[in-house]
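User: Need the bound-state model for zinc ion:
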Amino acid sequence: MPNVADLCDLLDRHFPPDTADSWDSVGLICGDPAATVSRVLFGLDPTIEVIHEAIEVQADLVVTHHPLFLTGVHGVSRDTLGGRVVHEAISHGIALFNAHTNADHANPGVSDALAAALGLVECAPIQLGDTPFTGAGRIGRLPYTQSLSEFAEHVALALPETAGGIRISGDPEKVIDMVAVCGGSGDFLLPLAANLADVYVTSDLKHHRVLDHPRDACALIDASHFATEWPWVLAVASLVASELGSGVSTLVSEVRTDPWTAHNASPGVLA
Ligand SMILES: [Zn+2]
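Assistant: Bound-state model below.
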């Protein structure tokens, strides 16, 4: 039976830690590298709810995309959010591991999983990097063209349901052939994506960036951060399952860590 270190090596091969951004935190968060692993739970965020789920399903390792601590901490006392996660995990013999921007830059990585979920073909990085393991976002082609309104419906059905749904900027009749995607916060790639694609699908687009974007250029679809990265969780779970076979069981978290809980579509009143 593999141990935690074996799982870390496997994940590091696919998502090399040295390709992570310099500000990022990736790799083993807590746990004993020598401990054996029979069950792995995959999720997007290492929240306390996900750790409780791991305890319930008797997972030995939790693999997430987002880190538990992005900045340095002095301590992990139990009365802090992160400290509680660490205490619960260690006291139940659960190791935590994450692959963040190294999974964004990998090929296949987070944006490949999003592109695949949307059925794109002939995909390439929007922004090329120095090695095959680096390159942000993906641009690909739809198997057949759709109007923007048809494509938006397709996106909404392909991604997990969230309280905020998806937001669209553009002419509903615009013909969509080339699609650019970036899982997670893709605001930084908008100028590049807009030059290449008919529509850009990402999350966390900023007000001024969208306002200043030419209306007749690339259309925009802004989904929840959680929804655009969720396909990677499914992808990495099946990757580990296919590499380790039946020796280790792999489970995908049922906890939805999208922080938004409701959406009020009331038109309101502009004063
Ligand atoms: Zn993210």
